[in-house]
């Protein structure tokens, strides 16, 4: 148990950052009976948060293609927590497809991942009628899900308040100042890239996205198009809107390049030609916080805890990381793959 912590519910908890990582920390701690205050530098629209620009995919099996086993382990636990706390979360699965010229990459993806069944062309069409005749087969990951970040974050914030927590927007606070004011409490730093003032290893990895609208395409689940240079995911967001994304660029500006826009839009057209007539509603990008190994980390330094490095897996990992932090504070539990005590 942390130095200075008391029995369950007696330790006040200050959390900095109301994005997906901080929001899940606040929710689980508040529901466990702690006096929680969540601080966020932006307003309640959360437009400054990386989460605002996220895809929201809950896809641990698909992510295994390019991530370490710990991502899958934590991701599977997070799926249970999403189901428990948000029973209406869509778990319609994920569909992975590729054109004939990219067959080798498709087969490689299949070999590196589990949890899927292979569908022939007719089964792909049955699953997603809009894709009829477009692909000769696909990989269906039936147990994966997705959330709409701009809808689920306000829901998380409302749950935190309902559980007795306090949220203070437009509050750009300092970790050391909170620790000084709250000697008996715990401070959890979930600031993402802004935490580089304390964690110099962090870097920003840009993820770009485009939101389009069309009535000519209907999808019930995220669709990933395999391509050796510009893999794409198309995520349905309801009301004829779709998010196009998948870039991971080692750059820290927040614009969308012409090259990326062309590649994302071209890939969407390759999924379905009707996207050529879609209306572009929004371009945007967020900087994902990452350590050199691209793995998440919970760093414990007495009564200060930093949760960071979620990289491109924020919505997938946040619930499980919050559960680990709570278990450490209340029972002294240590997850050796994720936690560091300094």
Main beta-sheet annotation: 8 strands, mixed
Rg from Cα? 20 Å
Strands, count: 17
Question: What is the string of helix and strand elements?
Answer: EHEEHHEHEHEEHEHEEEEEHEEEHE
- Overall helicity: 25-40%
* CA-CA gap between termini: 14 Å
On the 0 to 100 scale, the average pLDDT is 92
- What overall geometry do the principal axes of the alpha carbons give? globular
* Beta-strand residue percentage: 15-25%
Characterise the protein shown here.
The protein is an alpha/beta fold. The chain is built from nine helices and 17 strands. It has an eight-stranded mixed β-sheet. Strands 8-2-1-9-16-15-17 form a seven-stranded mixed β-sheet, with helices on both faces. A two-stranded antiparallel sheet has the order 3-7. Helix 1 (20-31) runs parallel beside helix 6 and helix 3 packs across helix 9 (314-331).
What order do the helices and strands come in, and which of them pair?
Elements: E1 13-16, H1 20-31, E2 36-39, E3 57-58, H2 60-63, H3 69-85, E4 94-97, H4 103-112, E5 117-120, H5 121-127, E6 137-141, E7 145-146, H6 149-162, E8 166-168, H7 175-181, E9 186-189, E10 203-213, E11 223-225, E12 232-236, E13 241-245, H8 258-271, E14 279-290, E15 297-301, E16 304-308, H9 314-331, E17 339-341
Helix pairs in contact: 1-6, 1-9, 3-9
